[in-house]
Please model this.
Amino acid sequence: MSAEFTATLAWLALALQVALGLLCAWHALISKRDPRSALAWIGISLLLPLGGPLLYFLFGVNRIRTRGRRLGTRFPLPMAFDYEQPDDADLAEPAAPGPLDGLPAGPIARASARISRRQCLPGNRIEHLHNGEQAYPAMVEAIRSAERYVYLSTYIFGVHGAARDIVEALCAARRRGVTVCVLIDGLGHWYTLARAAPALRRGDVRVALFLPLRLWPPSLHVNLRNHRKILVVDGEIAFTGGMNIADYHVLGDGKGFRVADLHLRLTGPVVSQIESVFAEDWQFATGQTLPDPKPARPNAHGAACRVITDGPNEDLDRLALVLLAAVSAAQRRIAIVTPYFLPSRELVGALQAAALRGVAVSILLPGRNNLPYVHWATRNMLWELLQHGVEVRYQPPPFVHTKVLLVDDDYAQVGSANLDPRSLRLNFELNVEVFDADFNAALGENFATAWAAARPVTLDEISGRGLAERTRDAACWLFSPYL
Model:
């Protein structure tokens, strides 16, 4: 190889690096909404040869469309040159925000109707299920009762312990002639060594991975994960919440790593909204269209419910806006339970304002997090809330993975979304909002019990951290948009 040829290759490689860096920097400049995020990605793209554009390609492009352009038109290089915003043209007409047949018509209901574009449906019966001890047997019973179809979506699906009962119930349903579709996140699929997908496929269950990681055809959406938890049986029963399918959700004797969580069992018209979300995700992942859901029968004296979806697609910012509307409308109390708490500046401001106007704002966090760097990043910003009267407490083990929002006496949200950028900007999430005083009161009692057993976090504790600890926490907080 001649020296001239070597020099030519070197110049071509340099030109390629510069071109890729400029392309990614330009994309970040015109598509990012946060100037800090845009500036960071521009710097990374320009200053790290090849590595910077690769990082941007893997982690910086967080926009995907699941309605307007489906599987067949997904582009191999996911860099559409448009703004990171919802595409309202792809959505149905907005739901009527006003009162309808006695449905809630307060400020939260009006805002969530306009934001979610879904109707609030009356006549739903809700049962809250704590941990795998309550949730898994109820799910198995529902699957065993299936006569027509079972749809299941989860982030993590193991095959050991109690999770094996769900695998066996799904396979048995398929042997009875029931249609069984299981959707597992393409990254969460690898979180357990013993995975459920092979066993399900051996049982003739239709299994799909949501955005599986592969080099060809290219699918490298590392950040864009389906974090929703859905089980729908015959269009009559639905389960959703924060619980994955893994044996660590069964607390048992408390030995080893255990995760406490909350799931909901629902019957009534809201089941069709949950089923529609699964059908959309299934079509995106497989290209297959499922039959349109039929509205379930309403229950007498049931709660009014609505599904709120969020994701780096047309649903972008839906949940964040509903959360802001709910917090801003609170008059008496706000109670939050979440495992990961890295709120946006807007939500921090709304919580501060609520506390300053006399609303009792209480936040329950795990005392020991399974992701220590998230816990450290959170401690770096807690002083902003504590100094304005927001109360924060740490729960003792086991690790509490529950996600609950209670506002005043008649509004609640339960689902899969955490209060951090990953959930509210990068993941596909599903929460159910409930307008019902009895449901709110029941969850409020659970919250009060957990609150009494938790340890208060004081402003003196946060301010008294040593320099090394504060440096560590601040360094983790610096990367909070990517945690």
Q: What stands out?
A: The chain is about 40% helix and 20% strand. The radius of gyration is 23 Å.
